[in-house]
Amino acid sequence: MASFFDLVALADLKAWLDIQSDDDDALLATLIAYSALTAPRIAHLPAATDFPAGTRLTVIDESGSCSAGNTITLACAASDTINGAASAIVDSAWGYLAVESNGADRWIIIDQPASNLTALGIGTPADPANPLSVYGADALFNSGSDIRMKINKASASNTASFLFQDGFSGRAEIGLTGDDDFHFKVSSDGSAFRDGITIDKATGAVTLGNALTAVADANYAARPSDRFIAYTSLSAARIVTLPSASSFPAGTPLRIADLSGNCSASNTLTVNPAGSDAIDGASSMQLSSSRGFATLLCDGSGNWIVIGRSANIVSFESGGSYVPSPGIVYADVYLFGAGGGGGGGALEAANTACSGGSGGGGGGFNMGSFTAAQIGASRPVTIGAGGAGGAAATSSTSAGSNGGAGGLSTFGALLQASGGGGGAGGQLSATNSGGGGGGGIWGNGSSGVGATAGTGAYFAGAGGSGASGGGVQPGNSSGSGGGGGSATGSGGNGGSAPNGGVGGGAGGGISASNVLLATGTGGRVLALSGGEGGSAGASGSVNGGAGVSPSGGFSFAGGGGGGGFAATSGAAGSGGAGATPSGGGGGGGSAQNGLAAGTGGAGAAGLCIIVEHFS
């Protein structure tokens, strides 16, 4: 007995042979063949509901004239679809399409030529989203020699990749995803993908998703694949430019750190957002501390949020306005007053005693912690200037000039540190010279005048007189006095202090028997990392040594300058300069008439260091 398909085919065969021509057709038949074709034609399919479900309908070009210009279009009725579309096309000579109706609302392509297929399903129907669909346990692509599969995309911003799914939800992707770097991505939800490995298209450099991107002492444009940008060397201020927030995975942290240990107030790392993006509402942020770091989070739409960072250091070596970094909670402020200058050496007749110039007093030190609310939007910062060294006497039998006083440093109205007094110039006729007083928290140290030593400010050391050294400051917050000049013995050493600025040593004097008297050394900061005092001048090395700046820490001042050596022939030595911050200058050595006396060493300027805390 013949099947239903055979009966329909046989019954329609004579009619099909009689009516096929170069025309548009619509038939309830199982085979529609075009025996001639001179222009594009349309075969109107019946409604899917009117055609027996599961019955094959074939439309074929029997003329051999079908082409891209002479097409046969299978058009669906009403709202029916064919493989999800409203129509399908035969556009090759001798081409055909075989379709089946589901008896309801759609047609499914079940066979077509192997060349120029619009869709192909193997073991499963194809659809417009997946025109090539394969259902099976394995697939094999084999070649007797070389074989290469190609996946092409239209432009760099497009994607060419393999997507691995679980329940039709993406979990991993490899390929060129949105750029021309090669990416290995993973996802926990099929929506947000994170880079596990990225291979740079130009260099082949591999970046791991949570690994370090090393940068050696250069500006750096961060990539969307970066997760940890680490500076391994740093010798100057550098800039890190963030990728656009829209290109970076939302909710993914980006860490920027100084691994070199060289980040500082001068070797800063400035982080700038791209375009109109912002970092905590600001146009940039800055790291300025050794081994400083910041961790930022992107919201994916123009904003970066700082979720953690190291303390930031801002320093002022001259006056200015302090504007707190966005997000600070409080700041520690370390403030240093300026050191006083040492007195200049005298010129005196032979066989008459004279004293060398005395040392300047060290500047005061003060510190405090202030909340962001106490600081406000900004605070003016004033940095005291170091006192000038006193000029050496140039006329016979005349005293040296006094050193200048160090200036006051302030942090708005919240904090101040006073300057040290200047040392008196070298004195005549066996008269001693007085050292400058140390600066304190409130009030400057007074300067030495003649044989009278300067008094220290509140809790500060007084200046020395004669062979006595400058007063030592036992507390943490004030400067010590400068050493006094002596007409009969060694010049006084500069006083020392635990934290504050220290005084300079006195310059050498000359005894009545024309003996060159020893000079004083500069005071030193007693803390382990504090500044060292300058060495005393001596025969063969007549100038006093400069003070030494601190080797570490925020609350340590510089050492005082050493005193200059006296002279009965040749030139006397100058006093050494005080070290930054706050060191007092050493006194100049005195000389006999007709020779050159030494000038006093300059006092060091003050300093303000602000340590910003963000938690």
Question: How is this structure best described in words?
Answer:
The chain is mainly beta. The chain folds into 4 domains: 4-134, Jelly Rolls, CATH 2.60.120; 163-207, no CATH class; 210-310, Jelly Rolls, CATH 2.60.120; 339-370 and 400-615, no CATH class. The protein has 2 helices and 35 strands. It has helices at 4-19, 372-375, and strands at 31-34, 41-44, 56-61, 72-75, 81-82, 87-90, 96-101, 106-111, 120-122, 132-134, 159-166, 169-177, 182-187, 193-199, 206-208, 212-216, 220-221, 228-233, 238-241, 253-258, 269-272, 278-279, 285-287, 293-298, 303-309, 312-316, 320-322, 330-336, 347-348, 365-371, 379-382, 409-411, 415-417, 591-592, 607-613. Strands 16-18-20-24-25-22 form a 6-stranded mixed β-sheet, with no helix packed on it. It is rod-shaped. It starts with a helix and ends with a strand.
Write a brief structural summary:
The chain contains two helices and 35 strands. The protein has helices spanning 4-19, 372-375; strands at 31-34, 41-44, 56-61, 72-75, 81-82, 87-90, 96-101, 106-111, 120-122, 132-134, 159-166, 169-177, 182-187, 193-199, 206-208, 212-216, 220-221, 228-233, 238-241, 253-258, 269-272, 278-279, 285-287, 293-298, 303-309, 312-316, 320-322, 330-336, 347-348, 365-371, 379-382, 409-411, 415-417, 591-592, 607-613. A hairpin with a 5-residue loop joins strand 13 (182-187) and strand 14 (193-199).
Question: Major sheet, described briefly?
Answer: 6 strands, mixed
Percentage of residues in helical conformation: under 10%
Category by helix and strand content: mainly beta
**How many domain units?**
4
Spatial shape: rod-shaped
Classify the beta-strand content into a percent band: 25-35%
**Helix count from the secondary structure assignment:** 2
